[in-house]
């Protein structure tokens, strides 16, 4: 594993439907190994588009044009003969809305292992399912009902089940899009705890609209605005010593009062890419109750 296993090179993504929209504009950036990088920015700034382009998820959508490249351990993800499933095996994806497959809890985790044939025996499969359920702190909650339908779990448990399902095929990189925004605060907290525990072992890229979550979880922050990277830095420098005016404005400071992290900040009010409401919320807030 290289130090920066995933990089983009002048990556642009354009939706070519009725109205052409260049959602990601020539981004060149690296995601360091075994760190959690958050991609933040207002609604519509291209976060999900950038995230999906990292493992070619746009291929399942028509009318998307991609130029530039993504390099996985130095190898092109786009200009390659490697089949897409192999790339997706190395770069897992956890969507915003957690969905259990219509099979048992056990089979939800075993799914990818069965597809890729990544187990030697039933005992081996059992062990792997347990390992990944433990990794997402779900084992204690479900060990007595592994054969129950996955859909019976709570939304927060299903989100952790989705993370376990992604991890089971042993990716190096995990892409997470707003993975706590559909959850109640308690479930969101348990998913955050899981990510916190996983981040030293995996390269995690987490899209979030929550500044508070970025502060809590991130090692690195990438701030997107209108499809471009405004500023990318380690979490401490990003929040305590932002270099760009737009970043300062966005994180709501620093001013003598607001730079005090114990002070609850009000939402910044910069215009957003889609003219909608800025979804960023109090940078100093410690609860995740602002998620929507
Ligand atoms: P974010 O995740 O930051 O909210 P997105 O990546 O979803 O932003 O969207 C970036 C821009 O691309 C927006 O202007 C959005 O309207 C547009 N967009 C996203 N998905 C599609 C699509 N499937 N077809 C056309 N335009 C899209
Ligand atoms: Mg999005």
Task: Reconstruct the topology from this structure.
Blueprint lengths: L5 E11 L3 E12 L4 E5 L6 H7 L10 E9 L2 E2 L7 H7 E4 L10 H12 L5 H14 L3 H4 L12 H14 L4 E5 L7 H14 L4 E5 L3 H7 L2 E6 L2 E7 H6 L4 H6 L42
Parallel strand pairs: 3-8, 3-9, 6-7, 7-8
Antiparallel strand pairs: 1-2, 1-4, 4-5, 9-10
Helix pairs in contact: 3-4, 3-6, 4-6, 6-7
The structure holds adenosine-5'-diphosphate and magnesium ion.
The site of magnesium ion has 2 residues, from α1.
Structural class: alpha/beta
In which range does the helix fraction lie? 25-40%
Task: Please tell me what the overall shape is.
Answer: globular
The end-to-end distance, rounded to whole angstroms, is: 36 Å
Ligand names: adenosine-5'-diphosphate, magnesium ion
Mean pLDDT: 87
Strand content: 15-25%
Q: What is the number of beta strands?
A: 10
> Which topology does CATH recognise?
Rossmann fold
Second rung of CATH, namely the architecture: 3-Layer(aba) Sandwich
Structure, explained:
With 292 residues, this protein is of the alpha/beta class. It has a single domain (6-250), classed as Rossmann fold, CATH 3.40.50.300. Helix content is 31%, strand content 23%. It contains 10 helices and 10 strands. It has helices spanning 47-53, 84-90, 105-116, 122-135, 139-142, 155-168, 185-198, 211-217, 235-240, 245-250, and strands at 6-16, 20-31, 36-40, 64-72, 75-76, 91-94, 173-177, 203-207, 220-225, 228-234. The strands form 2 sheets. Strands 6-7-8-3-9-10 form a 6-stranded mixed β-sheet, with helices on both faces. Strands 2-1-4-5 form a 4-stranded antiparallel β-sheet, with helices on one face. A hairpin with a 3-residue loop joins strand 1 and strand 2. It is globular, with a radius of gyration of 19 Å. Mean pLDDT is 87; it is low at 254-292. Bound molecules: adenosine-5'-diphosphate (ADP) and magnesium ion.
